[in-house]
Structures are given as C-alpha cells and as structure tokens.
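Researcher: Here's the sequence for the chain we discussed earlier.
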Amino acid sequence: MPEWSFTLRLNQALTPEQADAFDHCDVFADGSVSYVLGPAAPEQYPLHHPDASELKELSCDVEAPTLLDAVAQVARDIRLIPGLRAVGVRHDDLVTLGEAAQRCARSRQSLVQLSRGQRGPGGFPEPEAGTEGTAFYSWRKIAEFLRGIGDGIPPVSHDLIVADHALRLADDLEGTDIPPGTLRSLGLPAA
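Model: Thanks. This is the structure I predict for it:
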C-alpha cells in the first residue's frame, strides 16, 4: 500500500494536555503522524521557538490506497483528541523524489533515473536544498519538466483539492444550525 506525505492543518495548536492524549492514543502509536509543541513560556526562548503555523499542523506519512483516504483517516482519528479537528491539508513545494513519485504516475526509481540524466535548462531540475544526504526538489519544477516530456501532470493533486475543500467546509459548518433541507439542497448529506 502506498505511503502518502502531507501536512494536516488543525483548528488550534496542541495544548500540553492534548499532546499527552495524542502520545497515549493507540491510533498514533506507529509514529506516522507527528506534531510540534511550543514551549510553555515562549518569551523565555525568543530565538528558538517554532513558527506559529507549525504549531497548528501535523506532519503525516500515512499508508492508504489514495491520498484522499490517508487524509480522511487522520482527520477522523484526530477527533479522538478532545478539542482538535482537521481544518485543511496542504502539500509543500519542496519534496524528495519519493514524495514527488506519490504525486505523479512514475515510480521513485524512474524519477531517480531522470534526475541522473541531463540537468539544468531543459533537463531535470537541480535540487533546491538538502539536509543530511536528503535532496529536496521543487515539485513545481519537477511537474513542469515531466509535462515537457509528455506526462499528464495536474498542477495540484485532485485528491488534495477535494480533501482541503472538504475539511474547510466541515470546519465552516462546525457548530452551525443549518436545516437538513438546506444541506441537501446544497448537495451535502444531512446529518
């Protein structure tokens, strides 16, 4: 089963209590979903605190048949932590060749072979950055290159668009009192 890498956005940063519940929740025991917890007193660490947006995100590497299934699985499971819910999903532009393979109809090995060919203008893009032996590439540049050699690569994954829109809508509907008839008229299931 393929593994999908994505970032799930949350309605809030995890509190220490929620982080503890997350750490003790069996569905997250495999380490496929991780979080960043900010310091209790951020003013004591002015140079070493994480970006505020990172505190509202989960890094996910989840096995599932499709990206949409992977996002749905984590969105469902995160509701096991009181007060947390998924409100969106995103993909970063910087990817490894393995992550790039998840977004196109090629294998990781195929992308590795392409990356060893001609680089630069007209060739496979150069890595953008790297840490500890891992090269990161711009997905936008890889997709442009693949389109140039005839691959039908959409600008953004359809599953990603659907997952993000569905989570945003679910968040917008959270706690609202909309009549079931109105929901059905909008093409949405009435709860």
